[in-house]
Amino acid sequence: MAAERRVNYVKRLLDEIGLGGERLEMVFLSSAEGARWAQIATEMTERILRLGPNPLREEKTRNPKLETQNSKLKTRNSKGGTDV
C-alpha cells in the first residue's frame, strides 16, 4: 500500500534528522472500533509524553548542520518528490 510505504519513508527521515520515527504511527481501524481507537490514542499520547519535546528545537540553535539538513529536505519535497 502506497500510504504505508510513505509512512515508513517518513519514519526513516525522522530518524535521520534526529526527531525519531517512533513519533509517527499508521494504524488501520474500522469505524466500529471506537474502544480500540481510544486505546491507540492513549498509547500514542503516552509515547509522545515519554519522548518529550522536539529534540531539534534546542539543537538547532547549537548545530547549524541540522538547519542545512532541514533545508535539503524542504528543497527535495518542494521539487515534487520522495523516493517512495
Tell me the count of domains: 1
Count of helical regions = 4
Helix-strand string: HHHH
Mind telling me the C-alpha Rg? 16 Å
What is the average per-residue confidence, as pLDDT, rounded to a whole number?
83
Distance between the termini: 11 Å
Oligomer: single chain
Biggest sheet record:
none
Helix content: 55-70%
Beta-strand segment tally: 0
By helix and strand content, what is the structural category?
mainly alpha
Low-pLDDT residue intervals, each spanning 5 or more residues: none
**What general outline do the C-alpha atoms trace?**
flat
- β-sheet strand percentage: under 5%
Walkthrough of the structure:
With 84 residues, the chain is mostly helical. It has one domain (2-78). 68% of the residues lie in helices and 0% in strands. The relative contact order is 0.15. The mean pLDDT is 83.
Short description:
This protein has 84 residues and is mainly α. The chain has helices spanning 2-17, 34-51, 55-62, 64-78. The mean pLDDT is 83.
Protein traits:
4 helices; 84 residues; mainly alpha; flat
What's the helix and strand layout?
Blueprint: H1 2-17, H2 34-51, H3 55-62, H4 64-78
